[in-house]
Amino acid sequence: xxxxxxxxxxxxxxxxxxxxxxxxxxxxxxxxxxxxxxxxxxxxxxxxxxxxxxxxxxxxxxxxxxxxxxxxxxxxxxxxxxxxxxxxxxxxxxxxxxxxxxxxxxxxxxxxxxxxxxxxxxxxxxxxxxxxxxxxxxxxxxxxxxxxxxxxxxxxxxxxxxxxxxxxxxxxxxxxxxxxxxxxxxxxxxxxxxxxxxxxxxxxxxxxxxxxxxxxxxxxxxxxxxxxxxxxxxxxxxxxxxxxxxxxxxxxxxxxxxxxxxxxxxxxxxxxxxxxxxxxxxxxxxxxxxxxxxxxxxxxxxxxxxxxxxxxxxxxxxxxxxxxxxxxxxxxxxxxxxxxxxxxxxxxxxxxxxxxxxxxxxxxxxxxxxxxxxxxxxxxxxxxxxxxxxxxxxxxxxxxxxxxxxxxxxxxxxxxxxxxxxxxxxxxxxxxxxxxxxxxxxxxxxxxxxxxxxxxxxxxxxxxxxxxxxxxxxxxxxxxxxxxxxxxxxxxxxxxxxxxxxxxxxxxxxxxxxxxxxxxxxxxxxxxxxxxxxxxxxxxxxxxxxxxxxxxxxxxxxxxxxxxxxxxxxxxxxxxxxxxxxxxxxxxxxxxxxxxxxxxxxxxxxxxxxxxxxxxxxxxxxxxxxxxxxxxxxxxxxxxxxxxxxxxxxxxxxxxxxxxxxxxxxxxxxxxxxxxxxxxxxxxxxxxxxxxxxxxxxxxxxxxxxxxxxxxxxxxxxxxxxxxxxxxxxxxxxxxxxxxxxxxxxxxx
Length: 749
Description:
The chain has five domains: 1-29 and 162-342, no CATH class; 39-147, no CATH class; 344-373 and 470-615, no CATH class; 378-467, no CATH class; 631-735, no CATH class. The protein has 23 helices and 27 strands. It has a nine-stranded mixed β-sheet with strand order 3-2-1-4-5-7-6-8-9, sandwiched between helices. A four-stranded antiparallel β-sheet has the order 11-17-15-16. Strand 26 and strand 27 (700-701) form a beta hairpin.
């Protein structure tokens, strides 16, 4: 239920801050007090009633007005039955403690409704979820819907949806609310993917905005703060600028989906283990009397390196947005809807990597084709270090899947068994089951695939069991036809996550991976094969993914000898440029790269040649010899089994304890400068090459199996030694790249 509803309970310091902020801003903007008659307040997601109980205890309601508020003007909703009862008891007890003269007559709190808040706007008569069981509750709901809400406060749910189709945690569908989001937040967004706009907390903002009284009012939520700087939430930011007159934001940070130094800067999680997302308190004021086109935005960042207790102490100290000690600063959004981490206008003058429409051969971009990595929706089943175990796992799951289909076919069941140790369900696989499609295990569908940086595994690449295969089959149609892809992901950790691959690549290979190929292949359906024709390569025609447009531009600038391959490696080399990545870090966190063609022909060739060197190093990493300075002790030639590699101490990275016998020491410090998506390449090896049990499926993935199956007992040790040298060489190549001054004129599109 926690997964489905995204429940986290709010620290009282945050609750009090919200209550006093709302009281102060209400007085400032509308000249009204929360105590005033007809100031209706709603907590749409009350949980155990903390916001309402603290409101009653806060002192912002005069004692003479408390009974009226309690019986007529305070409202809250809760969908979880147990929490609903606890909230009612908490609120009622609090009121009677504050009003001892009423103790002779117990007054129940009629302002609480057992309801799904989002459902209230879906039908003319409100929700019917509990109407038959609780007729009195339905009357409360109908009464609440008629009141003119002036204040909406609380902690909206965080869930964007279920982790897998097995957990039965599908979010409820709200067609009208989703359409409102589509017509507002999504419509104003320039982002290609806007799934996050349908997260429950964003829905809470949309629902509340539409529910406020026409005379205006205040919304104040503590919520996921990813909307502040997310690329896909640009439309949300643009929309609330238009719909509100004043906006107050207290950024509490705490984003633990980052890593390394950035994670330490983000500091403690306000909700403890309840959330890994950044958190913000957002207060929105809708004052129709203020005739302005866009809201004034007041912002405060809580600061770096603070633990949870330090943050809560600061929140308590400020007490309210109206406290001048907060020193709120104004934000000036740009036309992209950026509030923080503003993009650089020069970036827009560069040439995009990706075409607006794939396979547009006339596209004025570097590439005419690209695609996201492979999303299996069942990685624990579909990937494994052991080819044999992968075969057993997938054959077992397919057999279980077919059993489920047979049950439906023979009418012995009309639902699917959600035991995650039998089948890992996904939307498409469920559809196949209800269409009565049987599937067969095919050993030929097992291929090698990079799962994470410098970590290959076996992949079962059979389309029915790959939820989103994308266009990857056109990059690598079979094991005979070779190709390479530059893998890119915008990264909150280091701006741009970058690596290269020569195999089918996982969606999260190096972030949210977008693959830019050197070639793509088209199937020759017109070719008739003979009975004994086994030449698979003849079935496909190879096409260049680098555009003719960029080739002609490059030839014009750099000479007729330039090839599309030279341009491909120029892209890979240039994307490693430190100056580029620092200057345009904010852009690269939010969108795919755009690149210039440098004016100086020498710089073009320097980046292209460096790109070739880097690609060779990163593709053929297994054959790189160990770094000569690294020492290995304890190698008896027999015991290479790995359970979990580690450093002796957190910051003592010149030494790695490989296993109970083997230790690597004297690792060069600069090896750790080679970072992919916030983590050094060395630490990627340490993280991925460990024995990993998967709780839901019961499957254990053991990297030692790979070493055994390829017949190289030392494989993991040799890999680690190679990656240390790969890292050092990468850092050296990157440091030798031409220094680009982006303030000077550059050739653009």
